[in-house]
Amino acid sequence: xxxxxxxxxxxxxxxxxxxxxxxxxxxxxxxxxxxxxxxxxxxxxxxxxxxxxxxxxxxxxxxxxxxxxxxxxxxxxxxxxxxxxxxxxxxxxxxxxxxxxxxxxxxxxxxxxxxxxxxxxxxxxxxxxxxxxxxxxxxxxxxxxxxxxxxxxxxxxxxxxxxxxxxxxxxxxxxxxxxxxxxxxxxxxxxxxxxxxxxxxxxxxxxxxxxxxxxxxxxxxxxxxxxxxxxxxxxxxxxxxxxxxxxxxxxxxxxxxxxxxxxxxxxxxxxxxxxxxxxxxxxxxxxxxxxxxxxxxxxxxxxxxxxxxxxxxxxxxxxxxxxxxxxxxxxxxxxxxxxxxxxxxxxxxxxxxxxxxxxxxxxxxxxxxxxxxxxxxxxxxxxxxxxxxxxxxxxxxxxxxxxxxxxxxxxxxxxx
Length: 416
Known about the structure:
Blueprint: E1 5-10, H1 20-34, E2 38-43, E3 60-63, H2 70-78, E4 82-86, H3 88-101, E5 106-110, H4 115-127, H5 135-146, E6 149-152, H6 155-164, E7 172-174, H7 184-188, E8 199-202, H8 208-228, E9 234-237, H9 243-246, E10 255-259, H10 264-269, E11 273-276, H11 286-292, E12 298-300, H12 302-305, E13 316-318, H13 322-334, H14 336-353, H15 358-372, H16 374-380, H17 382-389, H18 391-408
Parallel strand pairs: 1-2, 1-4, 2-3, 4-5, 5-6, 6-7, 8-9, 8-11, 9-10, 11-12, 12-13
């Protein structure tokens, strides 16, 4: 069988040490690498010192530009069998170019999480009203319809798309985080109850739900919780903290803002409980996977734990009321038996819902089957064909207009 070629177009260069989104992309790349695919990765973003070393996985790297026909030339040379868009904004920018130059290429959207759902929940915090039918929803669902398959990380989001928005199930594919199994050997190397101190929270501060959660911890949870457990500290970690984050540091209150953790799991494991009173968001949360992978129980909200545990017991406690949240945090922190049971629950969640090789194997088979019957699959998705022909024209000609403007006025780009 001829080696299949995959092009992944990234919103950013992956930073698995900084965000769950970066972890997700690297997990996909490793899956395709292990199955022998020829992988290329392209992005218009700038690399950082924290960008993952893709070349270590034999991935070819291509810096690209927005609104630039050079991408058309690149994709004509690469001729990928599969293109994966990292989030719907990438599909909006490059989808029409891929369709124009490589119409027979299988187009996959990795949603990461549903952005319109996260936005709706964030707005609901301010207004008390949840509007799922926003302009952002129209854009994101249009991208889903234009693609041959969309990878969805949350079972709840699968249900929302199928039942509320009537998306054909053949266009959606549930793919959770792809984690390693927790073995007895691994558990023996975890820090125990007595070796840990204090509470922790971790999250990339470019992600608005994380900043909001830290504000809730600082102003509502921690002032009451620290009075109940004398001497304990709350340790905040996260990539890209702004000044408004770092200025929350207050040693007298035992509220410590450390900034980026060199290794997220090592940072979490030093502490006894992960606190995450998340008020809005979407998808599933990488911080809880990291906590479970280090035997660290967590206290969170129903939004925080959404779609992560299935019918299993949570790795700690799920509470939406602040008073109950604090009470459960105290109980878990002080009761070794409860804490140990919560850790066991986390192992069950990981091993039954995330550490299963069949997820990766079934995805590969699904992609192979789709490639073999792509024309028939697209005929079944006739609405997607209409969107491909009509609505992309506005994106296409706007992009071409910007490109021509930049060609005639090369200094204009630096003014914007």
